[in-house]
# Entry
Amino acid sequence: MRPGFIRRLPALLALAGVMAAGQATADSILEFDIWMQKIDRHSQTILHALKRQDVDAAVADARELERLYGLMERFYEARGEHDDPLLLSWDGRQRAASAAVQARQGDFAGAFESAVGIARDCRACHDRFKPIKPQG
# Structure
């Protein structure tokens, strides 16, 4: 090995660590954006399933929403946020769980109201709490 490389090795390792840390954050935000897109998609498809009174499809969407809201809850907890975004994540998870139970019980009107609440909450908090802010 060259002596110059040995002298620069600590700096190169430090730079690699900084780049890896930055990449982990970007991956987390990218994953968050993917979750948000999936939540948006499932918050629409559950409404269609409930209108058709398709129990299996509605429950599958509700369970996926519940899982995704759980991921979002953990995302905000890891960021140290314990106010509105965390509470809205928790509320979305609870609404999704309720929609699944209500659909299984044949209470399509109740399940629809739970699902509509999810869609409304998405719109209400999206611009305020989404960690990716548009430039300009």
